[in-house]
Specification:
Structural class: mainly alpha
Low-confidence stretches: 81-91
Mean pLDDT: 77
Strand content: under 5%
Order of helices and strands: HHHHHHHHH
Number of helices: 9
Helix content: over 70%
Oligomer: single chain
Radius of gyration: 18 Å
């Protein structure tokens, strides 16, 4: 089997994935400098273990898994963890300037409502919906990142969406 070290140079890995990994870590931390630190630590771990990888299979998922584990390790050390950063999403939310003021307000309100309810759901539902629906990962990539089987991830996303829809309906009725 061809090793990852033969297929990819470490600097090429950094060049290809550093920006997307930084955005992912920034989305988890909502802290620019902490995201930079975690990115460096992630690539340090990649550098240490790159020669032990036997074959190139889903390198992107492998890198994101290391980044996520680095984030979790940091949270455990500092005893702070909030996996769904609701405020981070709102700061990055771009409202179409061509929309009328009323439409822009309604769009922002609907988004806030979704994230308010998402933040109170079970952690696995949050993670699954965040990765698949908000971050755009494929089901397979998200399953690898969460270290669950693909059918279970699909079930989590389906049930999470159902629960979110139910909560939103109750909010509108209530």
């Amino acid at each position: 089997m061809e090793t990852i070290a033969n297929k990819f140079e470490f600097d090429i890995l950094m060049h290809l994935y550093s920006k997307s990994l930084f955005r992912y870590l920034y989305g988890l931390t909502n802290d620019y400098h902490l995201a930079e630190d975690l990115l460096q630590e992630t690539f340090y771990k990649v550098y240490l273990h790159v020669s032990s990888i036997n074959e190139v299979v889903q390198i992107k998922s492998w890198l994101y898994r290391i980044a996520y584990n680095t984030f979790i390790d940091h949270c455990r050390k500092t005893k702070k963890i909030q996996l769904v950063q609701v405020d981070d999403f709102f700061t990055s939310l771009k409202v179409d300037p061509l929309l009328e003021t009323e439409n822009a307000f309604l769009q922002k309100y609907e988004t806030e409502l979704i994230y308010k309810h998402l933040a109170t759901m079970k952690e696995l539902y949050q993670k699954a919906i965040m990765l698949v629906d908000l971050k755009g990962f494929s089901y397979k990539e998200a399953a690898e990142l969460l270290n669950v089987k693909l059918p279970y991830l699909k079930s989590l996303v389906f049930r999470g969406r159902q629960e979110l829809e139910k909560r939103l309906r109750n909010e509108v009725k209530g």
